[in-house]
Amino acid sequence: MKLLCEAGLQVCALNSGPRTDPEKDYRRHRQVYDLKFRGYGDPLRLQGKAHQEPYSVEESEYSEGRDLFEHDVAYSNAPGTDWYWKRCKATGGKANFWGRSSARFGDIDFKAADLDGFGENWPVDYAEISPWFSKAERYMGVASTVQNRPSNPDGDYLPPFPFRCIDYIIQKGAEKIGVPYLPDRCAQLTTAHNGHPACHYCGNCSRGCDVGSFFSPTWFTIPEAEATKNLTLLTNALVREVLVDESGMAKGVAYIDRTTRKEIEVYAKVVVLAASCVETAHIMLNSKSRH
Q1: Are strands 11-14 and 231-234 parallel, antiparallel or unpaired?
Q2: What is the Cα–Cα distance from 213 to 42, expressed in whole angstroms?
């Protein structure tokens, strides 16, 4: 989205929930005893919602904000199964709370079919993709070390996070059984980078960073795309299906405005679905030709 806008294209981005505002939606550095419900959140906040189960860790009184998580649309499990679908509908989605591990694929991944003896290799190899990994790492800011592991190729890194006492203890134990204990590839800033401050170790990453010290659309790609004046961001727009023309080519989407409950159609020359693996498949399964 950011790159398309910077290239001069007019982009209309639809998001199924509200705009994430860290100033209002995150509880910042307050302790649990400073919060009304001691960090657990209002026990009645899901009253009347289609999906009643709260999501663990990320959804708490620290980040429940203005209805950031999806509880208006329920889902069901097949008989005999128990599947947990954690959904954040606000802009940036779960990338507001992600674990930030950002390892590269290597040829062990791209050419896995050769190694496994079945399946298909990727149509690209590591040498072709490597420059694009570097471009992403330099933009995001990924902290790690050079480790010379073909299964997890090295990249363009910021200085690593220092080990804690427990890390040194685990490292010593790992050495005894010949297992390397190494810093992760982490999209979290150890130094100021591209206009974003270094991490200040508050430990609240999984509930939303209030200063933008790890990569997320909220702090990086969305504001940079908006700065080009080429982005139209529609919030609370729940896409229902992809619209196609007489030849079966995508021409736009139909979405439900959560506020008015009205269906609206948006048309474009190109349609890109980036709604996560499950919801993208859901939209595709809902889509069919009207002709």
Answers
A1: parallel
A2: 28
Q: How far apart are CA 105 and CA 95, in angstroms?
A: 20
Return the H-helix or E-strand segment holding 263.
strand 263-267
Q: What percent of the chain has pLDDT over 90?
A: 69
Q: Do 234 and 217 fall within a single domain?
A: no
The helix (run of H) or strand (run of E) holding residue 11 is strand 11-14
Domain check: are 123 and 198 in the same one? yes
Q: How many residues are given for the chain?
A: 291
Residues 250 and 210 in one domain: no
What does the pLDDT look like over 243-275, one tens digit per residue?
Answer: 999 888 999 999 999 999 999 999 999 999 999
pTM, two decimals, is 0.87
Contact present, 255 and 266 (Cβ < 8 Å): yes
First to last CA, the chain: 31
Q: Sign of the C-alpha dihedral, residues 114, 115, 116, 120?
A: negative
DSSP letter for 60, please.
S
